[in-house]
Amino acid sequence: MHPLKRLFAYASRYRRDFRLATAYSVLNKFFDILPEVLIGVAVDVVVKGEESFLAKQVLVGLGISDVWHQLLFLGFINVLIWGGESLFQYLYEVKWRQLAQDIQHDLRLDAYQHVQKLEMAYFENQRTGNLLSILNDDVNQMERFVNGGANQIIQVFCSSIMVSAVFFALQPSIALIALLPVPLILFGAFWFQNRLAPRYTEVREAAGDVSARLNNNLLGLATIKAFAAEGFEASHIDAASRHYRAANARAIRISAAITPVIRMAILSGFTATLIYGGWLTIHGELAVGAYSVLVFLTQRLLWPLTGLAEVADMYQRSMAAIERALNLLDTPINIPYEGQHFPAQGVKGELRFEQVGFSYDGRPTLADINLTIGAGQTVAFVGSTGSGKSTLVKLLLRFYAAQHGRILLDGQAIDSLNLQDLRRAIGYVAQDSFLTDGTVAENIAYGLDSVSDADIAAAAQAAEATEFISKLPLGFATRIGERGQKLSGGQRQRLALARAILKNPPILILDEATSAVDNETEAAIQRSLDVVSRGRTTIVIAHRLSTVRQADCIHVLENGRIVESGQHTSLLAQNGSYAALWRLQTGERSN
Ligand SMILES: Nc1ncnc2c1ncn2[C@@H]1O[C@H](COP(=O)(O)OP(=O)(O)OP(=O)(O)O)[C@@H](O)[C@H]1O
C-alpha cells in the first residue's frame, strides 16, 4: 500500500479533522484568488464607467450605475475578501498543525509501545541508533509534512481548478493556451518524484546509519578512550556522515532542478496569454478588464505550480520516513503477550522443563533439558562459559521461544500464560541489569507503584547493599548516573538484587556475572542468598561454586546439555565435571 494511504488508515480517527482542515485550505484559496478577479472588475469600472460589468448586474440586485459608488462597493468587497482569506488561513494553520502534533504523538507512542513488545531476537538484528532515528527523525519528518505539505498540495490543486474555471468563463481559447503547460508540469513533477523516491529512501537509511554509529560510540566511550581509538572511531563516523552527505547530494541534484524546469514551462503559458490575449484585446475581441484578469490569473495559476517542486520534495522525503515508521509499527510480535491471566501471589513456583531444546539462528545451544524444580527450592546452574546457563533462564522468561519441548509453571505451559503476568511472577537479576538515571531509591523501587521508604531500606538490607548506600553522598537519594555508571559493577548488582527482592516474586533468578569476587563479597552473597531464597523458588546461575554449596540441587551444563545433577556432596563424590570445577576453584582435592 502507498505510504500516504497507510498514513490515512493509521490516522483514521482524525478523519473529521482532516476534512475540516481541507475545507479551511480550500476556502482560503478561494478568497485568495478573488482579488485578481476584483482587479479585472475595477479596471472594467474605470474604463467603462456607467457601462461597466458591475453596473449591468441589475438582475442580482446590484446595478450600481454611479462610478464612485461602484468603487466604494468594490472597496467594501475587497475588505470582506481579505478578511475571509485571513480568517481561513488562521483556521487551516491551526488545524493542520494541531493534526500534525496529534498524529506525530500517536505514531511515536504507538511505535515505541510496539517496539517494546518485540522479542529480544528482533533487537539483536537491529541497531538501536537506527530505531532511534525512526522514532525521532522519521516521525518528525511526517509531522513536517502534515504541518505544511498537505495544505500546499491541496492549495495547488484547488487554485488550478478555480483559476481554470475563471479562465474558461472569460475566454476559453486563452484558457486552452494558458493551461497547455499544466499537463507538462504535472508529468514533469511525477517524473522527478519517481527519481527522487529511491534517493530519499537512501537518505533516510543513511541518516539511520549515522545515528546508529553515534549511539554505539557514545555508549562505548570508555572502551574507545582506553584503546586510544578516538581517531579510528571518528573515521567511522566520518565515513557514515560522508555517505549521508553523498546520498543527500544525489537527491539535491534532482530536487533542485524541478523549479527551473517548471518555470520554463510556465514561461510558455504566460507569454502565450500575454501576446495572444493582447492581440485579442486590441482587436476588440476581449475586454481590457478581462485581459488584465487573464494576465494576472496566468501568474496565479502557474506560479503555485513551482511550489510543486518544494511539495514534491517534501512529499518524497516524508513518504520515505512514513514508510519506515509504519513498517516498524507493522513488525509482527513473534512472542505474543496474550494468554491466561493469573495473580503473581497465587503462584507456587514449581517449574518443569520437558525435552527443552533451543538454537540461536540455527546454532544449537540447549538440547534435551529435562528437570523439575520443586516449589520453594533453591537450584543452581553451573558450567563453563557459553554452556547455555543464561539461555535457560531466558527461555523461562520467554525472551526467546524454545523450539523443542516445553516449560511448565505450576503445571501450566508458560506459552499459554499472559506474558506480563509470567514476568511479574519472576524476579530477574541479569548479569548486567538495566539501571536508570535516577536515585538509588528510585532504582530499587523500579516498576512498582507505591512503595514505602522502609520497604526500600529493608530490600537494600536483604541485598547487603545498605553499607555502600550509606556511604554515598545523599544515601538513598543519590543519583547514580545513566546505566548506573557512578557505581561499581558489584554495587550495581546489589541494587539489582534489592530491586528483585522488593518485588517479592514467587520465583527469583540470579544470574551472577562473574566468579571474580573477593571473600567478603562472597560471604555477602551467601548471606543474602540465604535470606532472599526463603519462601520462594530460587534459580542461581553461579560461577563461584562456593556460593551455591547449600542449593537443593546443582545442575552442571556442558555444551547445552545437563551432564550432572545433585547436591554438592554427592556431586563431589561422583568425581565428575563438578568435582573438577570445584578443585579448580578451591585448590582442594576432593579425594
Ligand atoms: N543472543 C544471542 N544470539 C546468538 N547466540 C547467542 C546469543 N546469546 C548467547 N548466545 C550463544 O549461546 C551460547 C550460550 O550462551 P549463554 O549466555 O546461555 O551461556 P552461559 O552459560 O550463560 O555463559 P556465561 O557463563 O559466560 O554467562 C554461547 O555460545 C553464546 O555465544
UniProtKB/TrEMBL annotation:
GO molecular function annotations of the record: ABC-type oligopeptide transporter activity; ATP binding; ATP hydrolysis activity
Spans traversing the lipid bilayer: 21-47, 67-88, 150-168, 174-192, 261-282
Residue ranges the record marks as coiled coil: none
Family annotation (Pfam families): ABC_membrane (PF00664), ABC_tran (PF00005)
GO CC terms: plasma membrane
Domain ABC transmembrane type-1: 20-317
Leader peptide range in chain numbering: none
Principal place of residence: membrane
Subcellular location: Cell membrane
Keywords per UniProt: ATP-binding, Cell membrane, Membrane, Nucleotide-binding, Transmembrane, Transmembrane helix, Transport
Topology in the lipid bilayer: Multi-pass membrane protein
ATP-binding listed as a keyword: yes
Domain ABC transporter: 351-584
Protein name: ATP-binding cassette, subfamily B
Organism: Chitinimonas taiwanensis DSM 18899
